[in-house]
């Protein structure tokens, strides 16, 4: 490569020499030849670099150039458009939202990101923007798997007037941040009971104000007092299904009123609220309609959000859900989420239904708690259910004897639809004792096939703050003969291994199955299907 460059330079010099009227001085040839030889030697030195080193440098150069190209592309994509295109609300592929606009409460200018600076809303007269439809790209999408904008990156408009006017309110998202990194690490002050930490949700938007706090998913006692042979989940599941029905009715009511012209207002108690609505199309063809109501308490100390959505496709997929989030001036943070959905597996023809719920809260001392519930059914009789609850208190909190600073509880059930089932429960707790932690727990599980053959087993254990341990394990073998093999041992020397005449009992089928779930999901079933492509968008195509 270098030699070719030298030859080209020599040929160029010769051509220039011939074209010139007077030849260059002969003494100039010497320095030029020396310079060429010096560069040739330098190039040969470079060729003596190991091949691995050359490859490494070349790879680094390629990576640097690719990174620069990607950065340039991102910069181009982040630039605001030169002119705002006319919005098309009927186009399902683009998510839209309806907001009030104006500047009486004005958005926080310092919190505007690059995406906000190109909207151009401030130059349009307020009277023409009372119900403006804009592209939802202004709002940052939720990072928690829910449609619509993100609550944790939102800041309420600043109140610059004592009396708001209908056409002078604007709702803008704040600077984009991580969903949970910016939220204060605290939660609403709550009343503690012996068996459940209730969380009062402060959101109140509708004239019919319901109790928004979920009941406990499952009644529980302290781990050391729990009978491992029983799992009282029937009452908890009934309460869970009742709460799901209430949530579904609330979501359906909110979505039915989402087309109201009013996009903001003030409640009788002085709370201010703003509403956004939108439609999103997912890659799998599911169309999701959502509405978000955000609000601020009269004194501005509490900010909260209620989000509702329904989704469907042209076939049998339907979804209904809601999410309620909040934070206050003391740093308390909370979130409540639930969703139910149904779909058909076209390979097997089976209809599936799923329900899930999640509640979480945290306060400034690092104390937090969470409850999760999940259920799935199909039309063949299969069912799977699980729950997970945990709580952690400040280790310096003074507690009564037998109570813990950290506790966990999990349980689950699986039914194969043919008479076989699996169940498990696992509870454990931890207590801070100054210079260490004591721990204790209790767990059991059972596995049975459709013929009633199976095993039950469990363990109770304890661990002291200095590492001393104790445990007791037990088991039962069932083979359908009318005799049960019972065995067990403990670390303190206990041991048993016997056979007893005893009937085998286990739960072959769920007491709440697919058909119960189907009959209870009235609001989910009423979600309309999306019309086929040859049907006009305005026509509703409902499930039979």
UniProtKB/TrEMBL annotation:
Residues 258-275 have a biased composition (Basic and acidic residues). Belongs to the ESV1 family. Keywords: Chloroplast, Plastid, Transit peptide. One of its GO terms (cellular component) is starch grain. It is found in: Plastid, Chloroplast stroma. Residues 16-38, 74-145, 251-275 are annotated as: Disordered. One of its GO terms (molecular function) is starch binding. This is Uncharacterized protein.
């Amino acid at each position: 490569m270098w030699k070719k460059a030298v030859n080209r330079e020599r040929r160029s010099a010769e051509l220039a020499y011939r074209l010139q009227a007077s030849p260059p001085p002969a003494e100039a040839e010497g320095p030029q030849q020396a310079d060429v030889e010096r560069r040739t030697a330098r190039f040969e030195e470079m060729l003596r670099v190991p091949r691995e080193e050359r490859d490494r440098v070349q790879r680094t150069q390629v990576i640097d150039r690719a990174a620069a190209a990607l950065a340039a592309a991102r910069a181009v994509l982040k630039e605001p458009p030169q002119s705002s295109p006319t919005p098309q609300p009927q186009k399902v592929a683009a998510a839209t939202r309806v907001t009030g606009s104006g500047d009486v409460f004005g958005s926080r200018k310092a919190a505007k990101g690059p995406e906000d600076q190109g909207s151009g809303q401030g130059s349009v007269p307020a009277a023409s923007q009372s119900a403006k439809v804009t592209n939802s790209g202004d709002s940052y999408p939720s990072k928690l798997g829910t449609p619509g904008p993100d609550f944790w990156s939102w800041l309420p408009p600043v109140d610059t007037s004592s009396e708001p006017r209908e056409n002078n309110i604007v709702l803008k998202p704040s600077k984009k941040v991580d969903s949970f990194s910016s939220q204060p690490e605290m939660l609403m002050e709550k009343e503690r009971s012996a068996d459940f930490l209730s969380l009062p949700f402060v959101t109140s938007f509708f004239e019919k104000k319901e109790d928004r706090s979920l009941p406990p998913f499952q009644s529980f006692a302290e781990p050391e007092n729990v009978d491992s042979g029983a799992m009282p989940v029937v009452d908890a599941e009934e309460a869970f299904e009742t709460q799901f029905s209430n949530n579904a009715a609330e979501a359906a009511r909110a979505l039915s009123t989402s087309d109201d012209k009013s996009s903001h207002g003030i409640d009788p108690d002085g709370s201010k609220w703003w509403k956004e609505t939108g439609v999103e199309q997912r890659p799998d063809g599911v169309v999701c309609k959502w509405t978000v109501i955000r609000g601020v308490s009269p004194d501005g100390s509490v900010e909260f959000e209620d989000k509702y959505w329904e989704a469907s496709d042209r076939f049998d997929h339907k979804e209904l859900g809601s999410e309620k989030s909040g934070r206050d001036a003391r740093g308390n943070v909370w979130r409540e989420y639930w969703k139910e959905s149904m779909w058909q597996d076209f390979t097997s023809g089976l209809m599936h239904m799923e329900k899930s719920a999640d509640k979480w809260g945290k306060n400034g001392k690092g104390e937090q708690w969470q409850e999760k519930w999940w259920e799935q059914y199909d039309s063949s009789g299969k069912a799977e259910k699980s729950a997970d609850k945990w709580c952690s208190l400040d280790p310096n909190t003074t507690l009564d004897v037998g109570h813990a600073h950290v506790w966990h509880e999990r349980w689950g059930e699986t039914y194969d639809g043919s008479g076989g089932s699996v169940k498990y429960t696992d509870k454990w707790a931890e207590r801070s004792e100054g210079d260490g932690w004591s721990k204790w727990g209790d767990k059991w599980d059972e596995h049975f096939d459709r013929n009633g053959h199976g095993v039950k087993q469990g363990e109770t254990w304890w661990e002291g703050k200095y590492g001393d341990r104790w445990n007791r394990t037990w088991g039962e073998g069932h083979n359908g003969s009318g005799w049960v093999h019972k065995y067990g041992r403990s670390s303190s020397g206990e041991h048993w291994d016997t056979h007893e005449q005893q009937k085998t009992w286990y739960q072959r089928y769920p007491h709440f199955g697919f058909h119960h779930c189907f009959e209870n999901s009235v609001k989910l079933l009423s979600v309309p299907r999306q019309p086929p492509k040859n049907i006009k968008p305005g026509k509703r195509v409902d499930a039979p």
